[in-house]
Amino acid sequence: MTQHMIEAGKPATKLKSEALQVLFERGLVHQCTDLEALDAKLSAGPVTAYAGFDATASSLHVGHLMPLMSMRWLQKLGHKPIMVLGGGTSQVGDPSFRNEARPMLEQRQIAANIAGIRRSVERLIDLSPEGGALIVDNADWLTEFKFLEFLRDFGPHFTVNRMMTFDSVRSRLDNQMPLTVLEFCYMMLQAVDFLELSRRHDCTLQVGGSDQWGNIVNGVELGRKGDGRQLFGLTVPLITTANGAKMGKTAAGAVWLHPEHLSPFAFWQFWRNTADADVPRFLRLFTELPIREVERLSMLEGIERNEAKKILATQVTAIVHGAEAARHALEQGDTLFSESWEEAEPTHRLASLRLATGMGLLDLLTELGFATSNSDARRLVEGGGVRLNGSVIQDPRRTLAIGDLAAGERLSLAVGRRKKALVAFE
After folding, report:
1. CATH number of the domain that residue 293 is part of
2. Pfam families this protein is in (predicted)?
């Protein structure tokens, strides 16, 4: 099997398929198991591809947008996406590049997480009969296997020697961290997912993050050894920001796609606060703007770069939360950062009782995600970076009271020039 590592996001040969041309152009390709053969297959007609998401939380986060955007483009270009929700594999836990085992989840929690993830996926992928996409749960087949039957049918196709060569396994062992048999078997389960999907739905392509490369290769090889099928794997790059931080992490934690975990405005504000150096790349990766428009926006500098950031934020928010939510977030942001911020709608709502009992400024900064901890919030306040209702506050012992409310039972809190919240107390 030929394996390709894509250097600098450019294929070594000229591509025939529009799908791969677009994915490369947008920066969505990192590795491919057989680039030339996949290119030929995609150019010959519609291909069924899948991306899988384990139900470890009740929402996906922005790190998942890379495979999701790849699947959106494939669907737009006439191919069929299958979104696999890991009701089965979530019972085991993916060990890929983790220092310890994932906590075991109860069936009820897994079911609740799948319901939350499904709502996000339904926004990003067209599940109408015309769109042809499917959402499936790998518990449908993984829970049907009997242990001895599973070992007999699939065990001969895997060698421990081969599995030990994958970075996801080796990194754990190199750090002298335990790797349980349960976790070790995860990569077998994911490989069986690919084989089952190829049998049930003629699926021939798996798309995943670069940390899934070993698992994806296992599936490709299982298809060849088990059924003589030609399957393909394609990974998207791991995205870091210009300062080297992992994409999608904030002071408050992950940037969630589900509005119950993170409001559409907070999501919009995350993208609006993108560093200047990241704007051109993020416009390519996370929007569907034509490349010429992406290039035009990428050339903007100075104050004009802020307009590019607004467009980035609004475009991504529209994809994840819908056009109306994106428009509302843009209007809310424009008002919130204007001199008439009192007219903006609240970004957060808290109980009035918390003011009556004396809510600390540091606690509020942490709760809003402007600081990672009270000590971090203290440093922001003492450094003069915090404004309450437009006035700089430098006393970290400051508590909030009814008298701090303005503009209809709410207050404005800002950190620096790029982070601002309008908190209503009800």
Report:
1. 1.10.240.10
2. S4, tRNA-synt_1b
